Amino acid sequence: MIRRSAVSLLLGSSAIWGLSSINQAYAASASDAQILALQHEMQEMRREMSGQISVLRQRLVRAEAHNTPAANAAQARRVAASKGQPLPDSYAQDIHIGGDSGMGGNLGSVMQKADLGTPPSDRGVSSSWASFRAANEKEEAVHMGGMMIGFPGGRPTISSEDGMYAMSIGLAFHEDIGGFMGMSPRRGETRGDFSSLTENARRLRIPISFRYKDWIANITPDFGNGSADGSTTLYEANVNYAGFHNTILTAGYFQPRVTEEDSESSNEFEMMERPAITDIVRNIAAGDARMSIGGLHYDKRWWIAGYLTGQSYGARNGTGVTDSQTGATFRVAGRPYMSKDIDVHVGLSAISAFKVAEKSNGRSYAFAEGPEVNLTTTKFLNQTVGNVGSIWSAGPELGFRWKRLVLKGEYYHIGVTRGDNTGGNVGNQQSVNFSGYYGAANYTLFGKGRSYNIKEGAFAAPGVDHVFDPLHGYWGALELSARYSVADLNSGLNTAGAVRGGQQTVWSAGLNWYPNRHFRFMLDFNHIIVSRNSQLYDLVGRDGNSVAGRIQAAF
User: Hey, what's the signal peptide range on this chain (predicted)?
Assistant: First the structure.
């Protein structure tokens, strides 16, 4: 009996101990899961705190790096400008608007301030990695982890913290409105396209740039190209390398820089359009979206560029081209004298189509240009030259700045050599010679006057040191421009091989107002005089006037 009770007690105790062990195991398992969850939460908190500490360290380093007289002056300028206050003299001396004044300082500091107060370019980015980082340091930027969001050079940009990777998007928006007066046709002529009031989306470019260190790819569609709304095309699509000192190497569809006017961004033009002769010259083997391989180099006193070129974008699209064009451009410019108040510019541009495009009717070239306002599709200067062997053009550039006054001019001679497939027509074998020139004057009434841009080898737009704020007496910048332009497409008029493309003379005057660096309003008046040619709208010569305005936005 006792033995049986002992056995029962032993079995009961074992059962109770087993149940207790099981409960303890479940409790231990729950406790371990809770501990693991707490450990995981602590690890996440450590990671988050570590990331915050890293961000704070980066901010501290930047703050210490920026705690210099130049950085403090830059911040003081931004604060004063935001409140509409005048700048102290000590800070004002640290500002240079528009480019390089030639007044001391190293090239890096000049490049860092190169675009302050002037309109951004109408083209994709082409600066070096070092210049890009300097531009980011100069501008306010939002830092989000390892990314920066800012507006270097006035263009919205997203980049990595070190600027190694970046993407930017810009805008060049030019909307023209105006019309012609006194352009009625004479007896026997057709009217031509000369509306009394019309409008045109002259440029609607969206430059998009992708960067990896010193390698940049630019793609810029243009939704407002030319003189007629609705024509969409490509302005550029190219790859650039900017790793060499002050040098940019380019391959792809590009606008090769030739002539002083063509080297300027269209956001900086003195008048709404280039002089007729420079447009005629650049289109021989350059112009927008031209297949190009070459590069440019610049310094404070000189600028040089050369490109091998081919066809323009779309040239083979349904045009019957059986053999594409090849050519080249070259431009060199210098500043033999520069000071705070004076810049002297001299240069030489040359361009050649070694072989013009061949179509089913042979090798010919059409020279055509409008009356220096793109509100008409009618071109007074219009002549197709057949049996072309090659085309070349060359001429000098001269420019002079004295304080707020800028004077400049260019002259170009165009030569056309003939081929040997004339079928014995000796007259058609004669070479053809055209020419043209212009002289322009510009004066800045208020705002920072035009200065020299070493990256373009040309004169930059006026600078806006105080944005439009009439309550505080700030009105942006205002400039007056005037130009006399002649383009002559007549050659050998008294010979058997005469070519009569017409001569066009344009007297121009313009007023440009910049309320800030991103917007501009232009007003141009042109008086146009054209001699007769073989076109039905210009059988005995024409003269008349145009008045046009432009709304411009640039980012």
Answer: 1-27
